[in-house]
Amino acid sequence: MMYVMLIVGFVLLVKGADCFVDGSSSIARILKVPSVVIGLTIVAMGTSAPEAAVSITAGLSGNSDISLGNIIGSNIFNLLMVIGISAITLPIVSQKEIIGRDMWWNIGVSAGLFLLIFDHKISRIEGVLLLVAMIVYLVIVLRSAIKNRTEGEPLKTMSVPKSIIAVIVGLAAIIWGGNLVVDNASLIAKSWGMSDTLIGLTIIACGTSLPELMTSLIAARKGDSGIALGNAVGSCLFNIMFILGIASILSPIHVVTELVIDTGILIFVTVLMLILAFSKKKTSRVEGALCVLLYVIYTVYIIIR
Fold it and tell me: How far apart are the first and last CA of the chain?
């Protein structure tokens, strides 16, 4: 039964992502804003729902240290695997807004996180600062969206009600499918004798990022680089500034030394992705394969350390 539910979960992820991307793209055209803005906001926040659920629940239960590990692991997965696999499917054209603004924000936020956790804790006040940074970022993105409104494409646009329904149904299927995959993959892994620690570092970390992976992959296949890249980068920003901000306000976070090292690795990855995006203004299939290889190396490292 576990294997059947695992397959059902993957089907829900694929179909949900397809529906979610169509609805999100349609909303972008209805609002006459670049799809990259939708990717950085609506799509990024929606696909980060699993990370939000895990981290905020952990904060409420007093286990908020789990929040940081989940977020750092998810962000590394988003940048290396989500962008990497999407680029292998179809080279991702670098949007000027992302390489000129959002990737720099991602580097700055990741570096800021490193400074915050250098004393091995994130206080409630620091959590408030993260939320303030999130508000500032959203204001900048929305002002840019209003400034750069473009003519829509009516022939490819669904009606407003259908677009909203597509987003809601797609997101629900993504979250449900992601939960099914994580839960049943964990049960299967345990039946194979894998430890809880190893399951947490691999299956759970990757599982909460499956919505981002499937959404960006489907968007890349549809040729919508704006949503594919914006979703991955936007999710990273949302994870740190909003989710970690809320989690640390609920309960101050104690940081173990290993996570300080992982945050340093995250900074390296964010800088690398900016360099790849600048090269020929796109992330090629070869560069995508390099990203996937680096994630495999990172996974081996966290398993054996």
Answer: 34
0.90 cut: is pTM over it?
no
Is the confidence at residue 220, as pLDDT, over 50? yes
pLDDT in tens, 56-70: 766 666 665 566 777
Give me the count of residues in the chain.
Answer: 305
Rounded distance, CA 182 to CA 180, Å?
6
Round to whole Å and give the CA distance between 294 and 124: 34
Cβ proximity of 80 and 269 under 8 Å: yes
Helices in 61-101 by DSSP H: which ranges? 65-77, 83-89, 96-97
Q: Transcribe 125-175 into DSSP letters.
A: HHHHHHHHHHHHHHHHHHHHHHHT-----GGG---HHHHHHHHHHHHHHHH
Query: pLDDT (tens digit, 9 = 90+) per residue, 150-189?
Result: 544 444 577 889 988 998 998 888 778 877 876 777 677 6
* 3-state SS, residue 255: coil
